[in-house]
Design goal:
The structure is a single chain. The protein is mainly alpha-helical. The protein contains seven helices and three strands. The protein has a three-stranded antiparallel beta sheet with strand order 2-1-3. The radius of gyration is 22 Å and the shape is elongated. The N and C termini lie close together (7 Å). 29% of the residues are buried.
Length: 166
């Protein structure tokens, strides 16, 4: 009888709990997004600039007029904070709040990364690397994780089999 119970307990611990699929997906997506955001996005000659340097340059050169565009460009450094706070909140069990924070950061990163990734510079001295696309893909994975974190719950209808109860 004990051997059957031990096998059931071990089997249960080896199974992936459905409730962690969302947080795991969200965490992986956030890590990919953050790694992509720190890579070289724009290459001019032998100098590469990350997303943070690139958007700072946009502000200094005056390409971001006053208003919503300027606000979005200036808010880019908040994206890692939103993703991190969202992932931590989801792991702590605050799924809706975490999904909202992570979703906001993910949407922002997907939009900026996607726009930069599909941009085609006219000059030969400016190249766009694949880092914006990596950032956008990671952000999309984060968004999928946000949806999973809110919708997928642990199944309560998976009790131990009757033969495993002593």
């Amino acid at each position: 009888m004990r051997a059957t119970y031990a096998v059931a307990v071990v089997r249960r611990h080896l199974q992936l709990d459905r409730s962690v699929v969302g947080p795991i997906t969200m965490t992986v997506g956030a890590v990919v997004t953050l790694v992509g955001s720190f890579q070289r996005w724009l290459i001019t000659g032998s100098v590469g600039r990350s997303s943070y340097e690139l958007l700072g340059l946009v502000l200094r050169l005056g390409f971001a007029p006053n208003g919503a565009v300027r606000f979005l460009v200036r808010s880019w450094p908040l994206m890692p904070l939103l993703l991190t706070a969202g992932v931590v909140a989801v792991w702590w069990g605050w799924r809706r709040a975490g999904a909202a924070l992570g979703g906001l950061g993910g949407l922002y990163a997907a939009a900026v990364g996607g726009i930069i990734a599909i941009a085609s510079p006219d000059g030969r001295t400016v190249q766009i690397s694949n880092a914006p696309a990596i950032t956008a893909i990671g952000a999309l994975i984060t968004l999928i994780g946000c949806v999973l974190a809110v919708t997928v719950r642990a199944s309560r209808d998976d009790p131990l089999p009757p033969s495993a109860v002593p």
